[in-house]
Amino acid sequence: MIEGEKIVLGIIGCGRIGRLHTNNIIYNFPEVTIKTIQDIEVGSLMNWAKDLGIKNITANSNDIFSDNDINCVLICSPTPTHIDYIIAAANTKKDIFCEKPIDLDPKKTNVAIDSVKRNGVTLQVGFMKRFDKTYSLMKKMVSEGKIGKQYIIKITSRDPYLPPLNYIKTSGGIFLDMTCHDFDLLRFLTGSEVEEVFVMGDVFIDPSIRQYNDFDMVIVNVRMANGSLGVIENCRKTNFGYDQRIEMFGSYGSVYADNPLVTTISLKSDNIIEIDNQTYWFMERYKDAYIEQFRSFFNSVKNNKPPLVNGVDCLKAILIGIAAKKSAKESKPVIL
Amino acid sequence: MIEGEKIVLGIIGCGRIGRLHTNNIIYNFPEVTIKTIQDIEVGSLMNWAKDLGIKNITANSNDIFSDNDINCVLICSPTPTHIDYIIAAANTKKDIFCEKPIDLDPKKTNVAIDSVKRNGVTLQVGFMKRFDKTYSLMKKMVSEGKIGKQYIIKITSRDPYLPPLNYIKTSGGIFLDMTCHDFDLLRFLTGSEVEEVFVMGDVFIDPSIRQYNDFDMVIVNVRMANGSLGVIENCRKTNFGYDQRIEMFGSYGSVYADNPLVTTISLKSDNIIEIDNQTYWFMERYKDAYIEQFRSFFNSVKNNKPPLVNGVDCLKAILIGIAAKKSAKESKPVIL
Amino acid sequence: MIEGEKIVLGIIGCGRIGRLHTNNIIYNFPEVTIKTIQDIEVGSLMNWAKDLGIKNITANSNDIFSDNDINCVLICSPTPTHIDYIIAAANTKKDIFCEKPIDLDPKKTNVAIDSVKRNGVTLQVGFMKRFDKTYSLMKKMVSEGKIGKQYIIKITSRDPYLPPLNYIKTSGGIFLDMTCHDFDLLRFLTGSEVEEVFVMGDVFIDPSIRQYNDFDMVIVNVRMANGSLGVIENCRKTNFGYDQRIEMFGSYGSVYADNPLVTTISLKSDNIIEIDNQTYWFMERYKDAYIEQFRSFFNSVKNNKPPLVNGVDCLKAILIGIAAKKSAKESKPVIL
Amino acid sequence: MIEGEKIVLGIIGCGRIGRLHTNNIIYNFPEVTIKTIQDIEVGSLMNWAKDLGIKNITANSNDIFSDNDINCVLICSPTPTHIDYIIAAANTKKDIFCEKPIDLDPKKTNVAIDSVKRNGVTLQVGFMKRFDKTYSLMKKMVSEGKIGKQYIIKITSRDPYLPPLNYIKTSGGIFLDMTCHDFDLLRFLTGSEVEEVFVMGDVFIDPSIRQYNDFDMVIVNVRMANGSLGVIENCRKTNFGYDQRIEMFGSYGSVYADNPLVTTISLKSDNIIEIDNQTYWFMERYKDAYIEQFRSFFNSVKNNKPPLVNGVDCLKAILIGIAAKKSAKESKPVIL
Predict the structure, then answer these.
(1) Is C273 in Cβ contact with A275 (below 8 Å)?
(2) Are A277 and C276 an interchain contact pair (Cβ–Cβ within 8 Å)?
(3) Tally of CB atoms within 10 A around D237
(4) Which subunits have 3 or more CB–CB pairs within 8 Å of chain C?
(5) What global pTM score does this model have?
(6) Is D191 left (phi over 0), alpha (psi -120 to 50) or beta?
């Protein structure tokens, strides 16, 4: 983007996540213009978009790509459409924010990454957890040597609800739709690459998941290039909300990020102490991270600086996920 | 306000708090129009207001009162100007949000309250702590009987910085500028009135405060109309940030609101465990409460419903403050 | 006591607290001999004492005072008997541990203290909370300057049960039987003396307490000789166990002692987080302090060193309690 | 043991752990007689034993086995001596408490177990963690269904110090000397058996450990017979004390046992909050469990009830450890 230019956005795909981003941008970045939004179901968008003051609503993504006023696109459509949209945006010299994953297929992902590189545009991928203030502080502390030499990182990530079976059918499975976030965090927080992965998993919650060769509970062990170890635990469903905790332990200390709680209220009564629950859902837990992700993206775009999460970061998370799938299938460690 | 009418705001006074409200309204209530802002130092406002898209900037408050488009005013100017502005707004049938306190003088405050009543407009006063989600939950729990019969409420409220001596000179002293928030919380949370007050206080931090017959550390004991007791502790300065805690204890249990922490990070190292600090400053601690206060105000205005904090609430906090001053001076309990 | 001499104990009074001490000494200080125990109800002691290997059981306290083998006595009988027993022990040159209070009457207390002084024996009084490791650490931190200049100390102390009315009738009331512990902690932790006291109190739990001009809930404000302030809150009964918390706040920081919990177990389930309860009863909360109190006492006795809590400490707690009673009655601050 | 018979103990081996048990028994179980203690280094025992009032000190274990007064033995000598001592005790009809492990060789262990069975005596093995009140409560809660169907158990266990290399040389390695405790807890808490084990480990702390084909940091994944999964993380050394945490997560909730802290003290100062450290060493962390283990053992012995931890429990922990070693060596999962 030319320095000093104003960001003019086109948003492709206005489902749950597209609307979240739209709202966040309108309320937090008034200096950014949303010129056009696209979705194949235009009808349901009309009232919502009008209330937000967005003028152009279209079912045709070319209305965005062919618009020279628009210098930046957000791709929030279903995963299989990402590659074509990225290429179209790159070829029309628009900077790109794309929801994760770029694609489940590493080869196609590489094609998109190449197109971005060739056209000299910016591509940021939606691993919003990197922008959480807690994990940012953790990374800073580890970088400053507060835990010394890294020994192990342990991530617990559990969802409050099982996603619909339809989602699981096309998502690529738990390693590609859920653990991929943790693979990315692993790389971000350790500053190192995954070299070996081993999986133990099972189906505890919904037996019908088995038909997709998928799991609803997995333990993923990793060995990193810097010699440290890692354990990720994922579960599709809890009875107590969204459970997101990380510990990094090293020669000098251990840093831990616990779940934030909804309030600081506690109640002592009848010989029990109750404390308020942790935040229940990812949109609540990562509310600020979703905003910070765009602060960082708009900053990269405006100043032609590399984004904090690029296409290769996404590709690597997918490659680890594919290795995890292989380990689960063959019941042995897989070297990347 | 006529039902269905759109809120069109005039904002009087754009110092620190006026700007905070302006920003909060622009980012969170896009359906509300800010038509005109006033401040005696117009010059310094120009760029800031332009960036926010506010068109009319004036040094003359009459530009607001005489504008029939404007149906609602925010009064964020210095305390001594409040009464006149409230009366002017009431007489021109505008709904009013006024920063606390309305005035340090109860008689003048009553004049303003009468004017509001006579003109049938809404007046909400800026005790934003009532809108904090933690205290709201506390009130709900107490109302639902979770602690049974109320025995005692204990409030700790400590500021991170000493305010400038100039401020203390005109603020009415610690009971009227600081404890008044806690007097209001006391009334809000207990649902009862203060009947007796006793003060023990001292000057620990800055001896020059003594010349204004003021304190920088006070303990205020109260007896409520519902029979329960209360203790407020206030200090002007800590070495560790903003300290805001409340406990309510009764026959069936005890509910406690601790300080929220900046993050959930903890670090174990070298035989010490460190946890992240509490939020440092009131704007950070009550960031959401400042927004919720306007959600509630706009809601009252649009639906002609009484506000959660009205002029009488403010008057009562001031009257308790005056009684506290008397108790401190005479070193004995004072009955209200 | 002559250096190198072995401690040979006589124990006077074997009610609840006498038996607790006897057990603690047998299990923790095998080098100390309990030669004789006395209680007016000898019968009920027989089996218990025999099981513990104690040979001499008597109803007559003179069997202890006239026994030259016995060089140390524990006085655990009812308060009105303390003075005579202390004098008898002092006159027979025995070191003395006496349960608190020595007496409710300061004059009589002084007589006992004089007798101890004249005979050159050691007298330690049973304010066991001083020996709690948490409060010891707190005192150490404050002494080392961790909180800088002391501003305020806040003590919350609530019992899980109402004592029997019979107890209240003769105990001297809440200030002398309950708050006196906190007056002693106040003096211990601040290293300073109480100069002024003001009380607000009420009867919330059992109206029949009113007939003894007593309270079941009190707030006691104090001003210390070092200029710092204090607030003690006492309640006779909670619905959630023994509640014992202390905060000391000063120019450089704030140190806080929370309630210890029974275990570190927490349970997240059904959108609630429960943590284990605090210890329920003083014998559980101060289990170790009761032992440490004797470690310190035996150490003083063996090495002829002054005890950590002497007769004057007890006298001062009583004098503050009497001032508190006066303040409650007259509803004004009382200078000591 | 014949009902009503008094327990008369012989203690074999008086190193660190033998002395700990001896002290615990003397101070907590005065009804149990310690008649004779044995150690190959009698000289260093003399003063210590005399102070405790133990009369018979011997270097010859036969003095214990041939003594018909002694009906119970504690075996606290080095591991390679356990088998012979167990057999000797069983053959002389003495009940047995043996430190863990019985032996590193499952065959020899079986021989000892057979001898115990044949002679109808009691054998309890020293997995003291089962007697910790926190883990006991956890087991109770899981048994009562508080977490519903078990999904996963996660154990973190880290020592504060590296043991001497000499110890590692003969201990059987980390899986047999350290993880075996966690294997036992796994079986105890889940009520199920380990069916599959996979290990990822490394040497982070002392490279000289490699020469013994051992690790100082391991992640052990397990699959249990009841379908649930498990992860144990062990490390030989931290910079912040003994770190012992367990989480059990299931369909209905999650129960967590955090580290107990030394005191409940926290200090806010200079924009940092410090809390007191966790207990530093296993003797401090499991102080009460060491006593409860003997309460349970003496109870089993007196009432001829099966002990809570028997020889087969020990054997199973060893078998899992051997499987873990194999998994680590072959870098693949091992089925038991």
Answers:
(1) yes
(2) no
(3) 17
(4) A, B, D
(5) 0.95
(6) left
* Residue carrying structure tokens 């800055």: B206
By the 10 Å C-beta count (0-12 exposed, 13-18 middle, 19+ buried), C113 is classed as buried
C146: contact with B, CB 8 A cutoff: no
Is B84 near chain C, with CB under 8 Å?
no
Rounded-to-integer distance, Cα B197 and Cα B183, Å: 11
Q: What's the gap in Å between the CA of B323 and the closest CA on chain C?
A: 15
Residues in chain B: 336
Please indicate whether, in this complex, the C-beta atoms of D264 and C259 are within 8 angstroms of each other. yes
A36: its two tokens = 């056009």
The one-letter amino acid at D281? W
CB contact under 8 A, A200 and D217: no
What residues contact residue D208 under an 8 Å CB cut-off, 6+ apart?
D165
Domains C8-121 and C130-287+316-335 share a fold: no
- The domain C130-287+316-335: what is its CATH number? 3.30.360.10
* Angle ∠(D44,D284,A259) on CA atoms, nearest 5: 155
Interface touch B278/D268, C-beta < 8 Å = yes
Q: How far is CA B238 from CA C139, C143, C151, C258, D274, in A?
A: 20, 19, 10, 20, 16
As assigned by CATH, the class of the D130-285+316-335 domain is: alpha beta
The conformation of residue D154, written as its DSSP 8-state character, comes to E
Q: Under an 8 A CB cutoff, do B274 and D273 touch?
A: yes
Does A240 lie at the interface with C, CB-CB under 8 angstroms?
Answer: yes
pLDDT beyond 90 at A1: no
CA distance linking residue B175 with residue A79, whole number of Å: 60
Task: Choose, out of B224, B248, B249, the residue to mutate when testing the contact with C (most C CBs < 10 Å).
Answer: B249
A5-29 b/e with 16+ CB inside 10 Å = b? eebbbbbbbbeebbbebbebbbebb
pLDDT of residue D47: 84
In angstroms, the CA C182 to CA C221 distance is 12
Distance CA B180, CA D212 (A): 70
- Average pLDDT of the segment spanning B315-336: 97
- Fold of the domain spanning A8-121: Rossmann fold (3.40.50)
pLDDT digits (tens, 9 = 90+) for D159-184: 999 999 999 988 999 999 999 999 99
Q: Is ipTM beyond 0.85? A: yes
In terms of C-beta density within 10 A (0-12 exposed, 13-18 middle, 19 or more buried), how is residue B230 classed? buried
Buried-exposed string C281-294: b where 16+ CB fall within 10 A, e elsewhere: ebeebbeebbbbbb
Establish, for the pair of chains A and D, how many residue pairs have beta carbons separated by less than 8 Å: 84
Query: In angstroms, rounded to a whole number, what is the distance separating the alpha carbons of residues A9 and A232?
Result: 36
D217 touches chain A (CB under 8 A): yes
Pick C240's closest partner by Cβ from A268, A277, A280.
Answer: A268
What span, in angstroms and rounded, lies between the C-alpha atoms of D243 and D282?
9
Q: pLDDT tens digits for D293-324?
A: 999 999 999 999 999 999 999 999 999 999 99
- Is residue C191 within 8 A of residue C149, CB to CB? The reply is no
For the domain made up of B130-286+316-335, the CATH class stated in words is: alpha beta
Nearest to residue A301, comparing CAs of A138, A75, A131, A71?
A: A71
Q: Which residues pair with D143 in a beta bridge?
A: none
Q: What's chain C's length in residues?
A: 336
Q: Where are the domains of chain B?
A: 8-121, 130-286+316-335
Give the 3-state secondary structure of residue C330: helix
Would you say residue A260 has pLDDT above 90?
Answer: yes
Residues of D with Cβ-Cβ distance to B261 under 8 angstroms? 273
Give percent of chain D with pLDDT exceeding 90: 88
Confidence band (pLDDT; 50, 70, 90) for D37? Answer: very high
